[in-house]
Amino acid sequence: MAFKAASVDDYRALARARLPHFLFEYIDGGSYAEQTLRRNVEDLRAIALRQRVLRDVSKIDLSTDLFGERWALPVGLGPVGLAGMYARRGEVQAARAAAAAGVPFALSTASACSLGEVAAAGEAPWFQLYFVKDRDFVARLIERAKEAGCRTLVLTADLATPGSRYRDARAAGGGLRRVGQLLARPSWLWDVGLHGRPHSLGNLEEIVGSHAPLSDFQTWVHANFDASVTWKDVAWVRAQWDGPLVIKGILDLDDALEALESGADGLVVSNHGGRQLDGALSTARALPRIADAVAGRMALLVDGGVRSGLDVLRMLALGADFVLLGRAWAYALAGAGGRGVAHVLQLIDAEMRVAMALTGCCKIEDIGGCILDPSGDQATF
Ligand SMILES: Cc1cc2nc3c(=O)[nH]c(=O)nc-3n(C[C@H](O)[C@H](O)[C@H](O)COP(=O)(O)O)c2cc1C
Prior knowledge:
This protein has 381 residues and is of the alpha/beta class. The protein has 16 helices and 10 strands. The strands form 2 sheets. Strands 3-10-9-8-7-6-5-4 form an 8-stranded parallel sheet. The radius of gyration is 20 Å and the shape is globular.
């Protein structure tokens, strides 16, 4: 490791130094002008916390209930595709780090390691489902998630068609260009390139074959994802899944109300980390009005721009019950493998404790709008 990482931003720097250029750009980039990607981070950081003192904060408890389970933190690792290309069998490493920290790990449909491989290595993950056009195959994926022991299914709704990420296009290229990017990262080549095989999309092998379409993943998604999906299809999934069902990718109040109607148990306020509709609201801005409408009637999760325990606190104060990390854990995995993911979870824990102590909160239930300073930007959300 070039230096000791002390924050998520440090892990981003390590990931940049360790990954082949095209892979770092795949994680780091957003769609089009990256306005939404930036706003996710900036809007969240602009929320002012209200410092309170002398309130006996000697016992702080970060644990919380979600979907009938007690988690050590109100935080989980959200679904991130191709994580097995960031570190050797990356999804297994991340799942183990999450289980050790007592938080959930959501496995992407587009993971390198299959559901079976991740479940066999420890705790069954949550499973994130994408709708591909072959509906029988989607039904088989749901069955596999059940067989693997997954308790929670996360249905991602904001990828009807993929947004363009200019950075991916600029970093792409086959032949010598790609070889040059790989040779410039010998430790990655050794760890992942040589010893991290197979480089396939474990859950999709049946329809993709045994080679991940890494060089042109977006084109593959464009050709194979089903843009005709509607709330009727959510009902179709609901009929097959008895456990907690979560709709991910909700940003609009009316969609949140439809999610509630659909019988889902939770929703994730998300814009896919600014990788889909550029110009869409940041999740911090979208969250309060959705929280007002659905709070207490379904679990409210959120992601987007969360880079610290302070950010987690801010999301909870805006009305979320639970917060998912995206790039925060992906950078850590790329920078330092499973150890990095474990460390980021420790950092979030430690940062949350300080932030809770200084906002006068001892339990997660104490966190609410009362810990926000009215002069912060959230007043305009
Ligand atoms: C590299 C990368 C891959 C992603 N892959 C998926 C995926 O396969 N499924 C999914 O539902 N969301 C995926 N997402 C979106 C994340 O789950 C999450 O919504 C987003 O990363 C949150 O924003 P943040 O990275 O700023 O925290 C991906 C995000 C990134 C950065």
